[in-house]
Write a structure and sequence with these properties.
Blueprint: H1 7-13, H2 32-49, E1 51-59, E2 65-76, E3 82-91, H3 93-139, H4 145-170, E4 179-181, H5 183-196, E5 202-208, E6 215-217, H6 219-236, E7 242-251, E8 271-278, H7 285-290, H8 306-316, E9 320-326, E10 330-338, E11 361-365, H9 369-381, E12 385-389, H10 392-401, E13 408-412, H11 420-430, E14 436-440, E15 455-458, H12 463-476
Parallel strand pairs: 5-7, 11-12, 11-13, 13-14, 14-15
Antiparallel strand pairs: 1-2, 2-3, 4-6, 7-8, 8-10, 9-10
Helix pairs in contact: 3-4, 3-9, 4-8, 5-6, 6-8, 10-11
The structure holds adenosine-5'-triphosphate (ATP) and magnesium ion.
Residues 228, 232-233, 236, 278, 280-283, 287, 291, 296-299, 302-308, 331 line the site of adenosine-5'-triphosphate.
Amino acid sequence: MPTYLNRGGRELMGLDQDADVTTLPARGFHRSDSGDKVTNAGVPEATRTGRWSGRSILVNRDGREIPVSQVLVAHRNADGEVEYFATIMRDISEQLTLERRVNEAEKVESLGLMAGGVAHDFNNLLVGVLCNASLLVDDLPERSENRALALDIQRAAERAAELSRQMLAYAGKARVELVDVDVSSLAARSLPLLQASIPAHAQIVSKLQRPLPILRGDPTQLEQVLSNLVINAAESLGDEAGEVEIRTEHLEHPFGELLRDDLPEGLQHGVVCLSVRDTGAGMTEDTRRRAFDPFFTTKFTGRGLGLSSVMGIVRAHQGAIAVESRVGVGTVFRLFFPAAEPTASHRPPVSTSNEHVTRRRVLLVDDEDVVLRVAEVVIRRMGLEPVCANSGARALELVQRDPARIHAAVVDLTMPGMDGIQLARALKGLNPSIPVLLSSGYPESRVDEVDEVDGFLPKPYTPSQMTQALQALLDDAIVAPPD
Ligand SMILES: Nc1ncnc2c1ncn2[C@@H]1O[C@H](COP(=O)(O)OP(=O)(O)OP(=O)(O)O)[C@@H](O)[C@H]1O
Ligand SMILES: [Mg+2]
């Protein structure tokens, strides 16, 4: 039975300052499992050693649970017998919330690392599968059974490549090509395709604010985000008719009274909000908490990668996501992006020339044999002559003998020893006119900053993607004339 409760304790428990605590049962303060813990573990230990500490849960007068850290101290009389216990408790609600957030951030980071690593290795293997299947399809007679089999391999590999792309997006490793984007126009442009990709009983309605400040973003990825959200929204409707609302708006003062100068860096122009709302099934609290985890799905045929890639893409855009959902009522996903000041960004036009490539020698460097072998065939079929090396050192050796002999290089980024960027630098040192195409299973954005690299070819690539990239490289380059 308690004899004294200080002011803080009374506030915590929701008791009046003059309430008589001596009539309250000692166990009435704790949630029953916590009460058991204190009685069965805490009291005996404090009796034995003088002190016990642990975490427990109180229930205050309104029935609200309060997590506390608690210390129980046994006070003894002159004979050494326990006379009374004193306990000190500290409300740790805030600390627990922070701990949960840190855990969540750590989880996202480590899952991202894993997803990125798996996708990277996958992409190397997929070059082998995708390119070989595609070469077979080209070679086999139109009506042969084997051609149909090769086509199946190609399709399956393309789906695997799509999965891998989504995993990279989640890992925040998707290649972002930042340009000025008007999200209202982007959404308006996507509407016909979005409506076509969901059942007719799900009607898209759009409320697009115009003019809308632009944001710096990657249009392809933002379309992907919109598509993932709209498909989820339509799926949540099940067989019922319902609406999917796409809305864009400019929140000029998202932080209320904060002065413009006090706003966090990059938010001076307010926030562009893109939201997708449905009147579907909604999510339980448990589903909402896990919805962004990679491979979490409640759908029979779902892969659980839609929202995780949305999250990766939004993070790569310095954005944030808020979700509101009620079972049986519906869900709204709100995405927030920093609005930008318009900049005149002109990207150099990509060469589309289809000039015939004269027989030139292309250096091919990759530590994966399967990639090397299939890329060799693709290069040969372009009418070019491949020169293969499975390491940077070996490649340099080949070029050193006669630097004018090589007209272009396709170089893998991650290789043991000398990596692709180091190799590109070394190659340019030997012959500055060799154009270098860097290839990687990670869509590397740092490549843009490396002067010695003239183009990027993400893995997995198809023969025609490789052909195009190499053709553009050769078209643009002023290479030494073939001997
Ligand atoms: N608009 C929504 N309404 C209700 N539940 C949703 C909604 N969006 C997502 N969810 C829940 O979140 C889960 C994860 O969504 P996510 O898009 O990542 O995967 P998926 O749709 O199950 O599969 P995938 O998108 O890979 O085909 C869904 O399975 C569903 O339970
Ligand atoms: Mg989905």
